Amino acid sequence: MENKSLFPTEEVTLPSKGLIYPADNPLSKGVLEMKYMTAKEEDILTNETYIKNGTVIDKLLKSLIVTPINYNDLVVGDKNAIMIAARVLGYGKDYTFNFENEQHTVDLTEIKDKELKEENLSEKGKNEFHFTLPTIKKEITFKFLTHGDESKIKSEVEGVKKVKKEKPELSTRMKHMILSVDGDYERKTIREFVDSSLLARDARALRSYVKEIQPDVDLTYDLETEAGSVKGVTIPIGISFFWPDTGL
Fold this sequence. Notes:
Layout: E1 9-13, E2 31-35, H1 39-45, H2 48-53, H3 56-64, H4 76-91, E3 94-99, E4 102-107, E5 112-114, E6 129-132, E7 139-142, H5 147-164, H6 169-177, E8 178-181, H7 187-196, H8 200-213, E9 216-218, E10 220-225, E11 228-234
Antiparallel strand pairs: 1-2, 3-4, 5-9, 6-7, 7-8, 10-11
């Protein structure tokens, strides 16, 4: 087995600050160690099977993370921060992309974390948060989705699509995100609630609140264009992010 300690490493700070992970989880420290990209990782990036089935980035990050973690435990915002760090460690801080038919280069090390505020937690060391649905006034407990949750959601949605020829992604995400309704943690109760009682306006309010408080990376950037300054442009994470030599 490869000894990753032979390679130079860097410490990456997690936007969650580790607050949502149990104390016995290495992620609770709020940082993890990553190694620099090697030829092995470039082999991963060019693996056609991984690219085709959409697992190439996850394979890459798993290979780069030195800290012994369960990758499925990572909340999506922390995973995004690790992805940015991996790009910097692999190909440097400068990232060039196209915006309104102009080429722009940004410094990825200037991207700021959107950190989790401890006062929003229901309890330190728990991925649990509270929200009152504004229309029907029910008390919801929810969590930030993890990589493991995202994998389950993808499989579930694809399974339904094969049978019913529909893609219920939003409702499926809600069923995995919501932990309790008025104190009832039964999964059957939650699924029935999402299918029959969750109003669209309440679902939108919940999604908006989750987006507001969840830890992540801030991918907005101010650009200077030929037409003038443009503030708050979202940096596109396209194919050239990890394949800068593709020219795409």
